[in-house]
Amino acid sequence: MSASSSQALEYLVLLPVQTHRKLYEQPSTVLAIFRCMLPHLAKSIVMAILYMPTAFASADLDTWFRPSAKKEKQQALYVLEQLHIIVLKQDAARQTSYELYKGFALSLRQALEGSGTHRSFGVPASKPDPHKVNIAFLDEYAKRQWENILFYMVGTTVGLGSAVGQDVGEGTKRLLQAGDFVRMQHGRLGITRTGFTFVLQDTNAQVWSLLIEYLKHVSELGMSETDVLSFLFMLGSLELGQDYSTATLSPTQLQMLEDLTAFGVVYRSSKSSSTFYPTRLAVTLTSDSGALTTSSDNLSALCRPGVGQAPTNQGFIIIETNYRLYAYTNSLLQIAVLSLFTRLTTRFPNLVSGKLTKESITRAVRTGISSAQIISYLTSHAHPQMQKNTPFLPPTVMDQIRLWEYEGERVETTNGYLMREFSSEAEYRDLLGYAEALGVLVWRNDAKRMFFIDQIEQIQSYLKKKAQR
Amino acid sequence: MVKAVRGRTDPFMCGLQLLTNRAGTLVKCDASIKAMLVDIDSKNNNEFIIEELDEEHLLVKETKIAQLKARLQTMIKERLKNPEEDSGSD
Q1: How much is the pLDDT for B12?
Q2: Nearest CA to A231 among A272, A280, A282?
Q3: How many CB atoms lie within 10 A of CB A77?
Q4: What are residue A157's DSSP bridge partners?
């Protein structure tokens, strides 16, 4: 499970059970969820149960795990239960057993066996396209569209002129504002904390963030959420460079094609065209990082917006121990990103130079960017010469960035719930152990018998189950 | 009996025992900062802090945390006037 798809997973678990059931009617959706949303252990459990004729007794499942792996097992099962993939049943003799949700099992089998007539994996165009486009063109197109969006967000903030954002559609602009990636402040557009995080993510995660925002608003546009999700998952299973027919798409999905074209996720030669091409942004939606290595050269160029002319030369930033920064780039987008946390002073045709100062870093921290984000951006874009050092960045610089941030942020906060007033030590130990296993425990105080958790839903359902016993 | 407490409290049954949990924001900071937070709280009718948990932890009302942080910033600025202006000139 990659970092980017975990956002999608977070969104998915919040959907109601009806939506899950409808989603699971599409084999492509089921396969995509199975392939890239589920943790490895959950996958193994699903695979093991998939072809079992009867329900699987939970006592038997327990025997598969070492006692020490109880935490992992609980986490995997919890994800499966949240997604309504697995159903816990209790028979008359109070024996519990697990079963896959029927629709999910059926669709997954169809996807694996290639059986059924569902056509959910897209229908390739029957006639060859006279204006067929190649993969390089699609990459170029996707990159241009996506960079325009990013540049629109960053460029307006740092005041790179009014020409910014002309190529970005009105719909996309509204979406970015609705998602609070950018906000109107004092009559001009500024990037927000969310937007900052967004820009520094890798491209795949960015695409998901934007699409999830899109999903939140589809119902207002009269589109069906399930349709939109199925379509996204289908896109993930398509082949790059192949044109697909629009004939099998629902009205919602046709409407969606237009928006996705604006994002650069799909390409259409014209609005009335009867075919569409998925771009690399689309086909990597639901694949693990392993699937990307085949085209790593193109992809890394895509991940690092702006270095189109030299895809092999990914790093471009040099930082000296005196906080001076040199960036070999002429991309406005990269310059804009850098200027969010650097005091840039000089610009040459292929180089900008500046300095990391306390003022520039604290300004960035105030806008919501964290020192960790700055450091990870600088590290991942370090010049090949810098990459000969370990670590890539001078340690003094990294420490100083953290210290500057710490000066502004003196407290660490976590929202959540304080649990207390346990009747007995055993009660306390039991729930504490469960919370720890789930990974929701933030703070504990054994003497006062209380602890703090950042999520309560699982604990509540655990207590309910316990109370029923 | 459950103590009467400020803030949102959801008691729920767990076996025979009544267990309380309270929504809030856990604030982790060093002792000096904590002292300032407590100071701010006491000057404002205790409207921020629900409870002091230990040396380095406080439970604060979720809705008030942003305001509390802002007040802390101002207080730090006032108390720690440092003449050090950044050196952009080396």
Answers
A1: 52
A2: A282
A3: 18
A4: none
Amino acid letter, residue A427: E
The DSSP code sequence of A264-306 is TSEE-SSTT-SEEEE-HHHHTTT--GGGGGGGHHHHHHHHSTT
Q: What are the structural domains of chain A?
A: 3-113 (1.10.10.10), 135-283 (no CATH), 315-408 (no CATH), 417-468 (3.30.70.2610)
Residue A170 Cα, gap to closest chain B Cα (Å): 33
Closest by Cβ to A410, choosing from B14, B62, B76:
B76
pLDDT, tens digit, 9 for 90 and up, residues B49-89: 888 888 889 898 888 888 888 888 888 877 766 555 444 44
B50 assigned to some structural domain: yes
Q: B17-32 burial string, b = 16+ CB within 10 Å, else e?
A: eebbbbbbbbbbbeee
Determine the distance in angstroms separating the CA of A320 from the nearest CA of chain B, rounded to an integer: 14
How many CB atoms lie under 10 A from the CB of residue A124?
12
Task: Indicate the length of chain A as a whole number.
Answer: 469
* Paired tokens of A447: 């003497």
For B27, which residue in chain A has the nearest alpha carbon? A413
What is the reported pLDDT for A225?
84
Contacts of residue A28, Cβ cutoff 8 Å, sequence gap at least 6: A111, A118, A120, A121, A122, A230, A233, A234, A236, A237
Of the partner residues A359, A412, A442, the one whose CB lies closest to the CB of residue B29: A412
Its domain, for residue B57, covers: 23-71
Would the CB atoms of B26 and A442 count as touching at under 8 Å? Answer: yes
Residue-wise pLDDT for A152-189, tens only, equals: 888 766 665 555 556 777 888 888 888 888 877 766 67
Whether residue B10 lies inside any domain: the answer is no
- Report which residue type is found at A121: F
CB neighbour class for B9 (10 Å; exposed up to 12, middle 13-18, buried from 19)? middle
Measured distance CA(A436)–CA(A442) in Å, rounded: 9
CATH number of the domain to which B30 belongs: 3.30.70.1220
Strand segments (E) across A332-469: 343-348, 351-355, 412-420, 441-445, 450-453
Number of domains in chain B: 1
CB contact under 8 A, A418 and B59: yes
| B13 part of a folded domain | no
pLDDT tens digits for A191-233?
777 787 788 777 778 888 888 888 888 888 788 888 888 888 8
Pick B88's closest partner by Cβ from A355, A422, A448. Answer: A355
Residue A118 one-letter amino acid: H
Q: What is the DSSP string of A188-230?
A: EEEE-HHHHHHHHS-HHHHHHHHHHHHHHHHGGGT--HHHHHH
Residue A456 Cα, gap to closest chain B Cα (Å): 9
The complex scores an ipTM of 0.72
B85 within domain boundaries: no
Contacts of A359 in chain B (CB under 8 A): 86, 88
